[in-house]
């Protein structure tokens, strides 16, 4: 028993050293088909968790959705209830994430990804050297359209990270088991939403000087769709930007095709979704504007530290947050700014004027319902 503990400690120490120089692949061999997963990949749901599912009216095999917040170092697991809406089941403190706030740009920059990712059974890895791993699928079509590259960006165990979101082994076992149950129920995929922080007006005002603010405001559209409806947003990419819940206009005879690098087609957002999201957006804009007017404190653009860790783990894993200068090349990480976001609403509100006004996009409305439309 002692020998096994020593071996595991040596493996993790070697992994930590390697991760300072290269991406943590978080894998050993290729993922196996779902019906061939070894015992390690199939931890049973605990009686306590099963009882929670029953109490919350969440079918055991219903869809899940993960939301990751870097600055708060938290991972939320949401699950569909019997009504088809997602409800928060559990919040896990993240043991370790690397890089700084902002999206991943290139292989080796140690950045954990931010954005919307679709997880299929093939992205579950039971053979990970970091206990169990869920590949985020980075780079997705948005990342590729914007020239971003990297590989094997995971949510995994062992609390070591180089561009990954690292949990404890116990945490990833439970998350992995819930993902497995969802797939066993016939769900083809689940969504991971990765954010720099909770996209509240206070946090956005605090980070308003960041060059990543336009990118984060684009992510906020999808965030608002989810938070306002508790429905998983449909995600597409066109014109190198995310598009959420886009559907063909009424009476359209043409199929709706989104080209990640091409112009966006004409599309509309379901009025029920748009109405709820727009109400949230307007309230957030008003609060944000007041915070800026009141000269709310501004956070440093870059922390200078390699990632973060939830405070509950600080005493347990001391010394794992180190200066970025130690692990990045002398030239540093090249982080280009994102262009303005082509997003508009019916009244040309603050966000659309600032982020989309220069692109000449014109909003349209159907039945006088709030909608978002591209041309």
Give a concise summary:
It is built from nine helices and 14 strands. It has helices at residues 2-19, 47-55, 141-145, 169-184, 201-206, 213-229, 271-293, 324-327, 350-355, and strands at 64-69, 74-80, 86-93, 96-97, 115-119, 124-125, 133-135, 154-156, 165-166, 190-195, 235-238, 241-244, 246-247, 268-269. It has a five-stranded mixed beta sheet with strand order 3-2-1-10-5, with helices on both faces. A five-stranded mixed beta sheet has the order 4-9-8-7-6.
What can you see in these coordinates?
The protein has 375 residues and is an alpha+beta fold. It folds into two domains: 15-198 and 309-334, Beta Barrel (L,D-transpeptidase catalytic domain-like); 199-300 and 340-375, no CATH class. The protein has helices at residues 2-19, 47-55, 141-145, 169-184, 201-206, 213-229, 271-293, 324-327, 350-355, and strands at residues 64-69, 74-80, 86-93, 96-97, 115-119, 124-125, 133-135, 154-156, 165-166, 190-195, 235-238, 241-244, 246-247, 268-269. The strands form four sheets. The chain has a five-stranded mixed sheet, with helices on both faces. A five-stranded mixed sheet has the order 4-9-8-7-6. Helix 6 packs across helix 7. The longest helix is centred in the last third of the chain and has 23 residues, at 271-293.
């Amino acid at each position: 028993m002692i020998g096994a503990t020593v071996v595991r400690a040596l493996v993790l120490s070697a992994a930590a050293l390697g991760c300072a120089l290269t991406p943590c692949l978080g894998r050993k061999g290729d993922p196996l088909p779902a019906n061939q997963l070894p015992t390690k990949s199939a931890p049973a749901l605990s009686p306590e968790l099963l009882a929670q599912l029953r109490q919350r009216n969440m079918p055991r095999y219903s869809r899940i959705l993960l939301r990751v917040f870097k600055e708060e170092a938290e991972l939320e697991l949401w699950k569909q209830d019997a009504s088809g809406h997602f409800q928060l089941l559990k919040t896990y403190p993240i043991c370790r994430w690397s890089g700084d706030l902002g999206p991943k740009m290139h292989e080796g920059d140690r950045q954990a990804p931010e954005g919307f990712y679709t997880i299929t059974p093939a992205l579950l890895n039971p053979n990970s050297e970091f206990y169990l791993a869920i590949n985020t699928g980075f780079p997705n079509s948005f990342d590729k359209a914007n020239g971003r590259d990297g590989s094997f960006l995971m949510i995994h165990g062992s609390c070591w990270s180089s561009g990954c979101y690292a949990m404890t082994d116990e945490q990833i076992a439970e998350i992995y088991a819930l993902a497995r149950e969802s797939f066993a129920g016939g769900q083809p995929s689940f969504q991971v939403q990765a954010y720099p922080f909770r996209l509240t007006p206070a946090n956005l005002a605090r980070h308003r000087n960041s060059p990543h603010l336009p990118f984060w405001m684009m992510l906020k559209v999808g965030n608002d769709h989810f938070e306002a409806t508790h429905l998983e947003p449909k995600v597409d990419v066109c014109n190198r930007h995310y598009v959420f819940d886009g559907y063909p206009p009424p009476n359209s005879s043409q199929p709706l095709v989104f080209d990640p690098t091409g112009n966006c087609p004409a599309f509309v957002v379901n009025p029920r979704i748009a109405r709820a999201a727009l109400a949230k957006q307007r309230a957030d804009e008003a609060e944000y504007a007041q915070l800026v007017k009141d000269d709310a404190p501004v956070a440093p653009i870059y922390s200078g530290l390699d990632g973060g860790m939830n405070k509950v783990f600080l005493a347990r894993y001391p010394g794992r947050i180190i200066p970025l200068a130690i692990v990045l090349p002398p030239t540093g990480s090249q982080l280009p700014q994102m262009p303005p976001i082509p997003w508009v609403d019916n009244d040309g509100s603050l966000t659309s004027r600032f982020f989309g006004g220069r692109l000449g996009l014109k909003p349209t409305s159907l039945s006088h319902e709030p909608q978002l439309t591209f041309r």
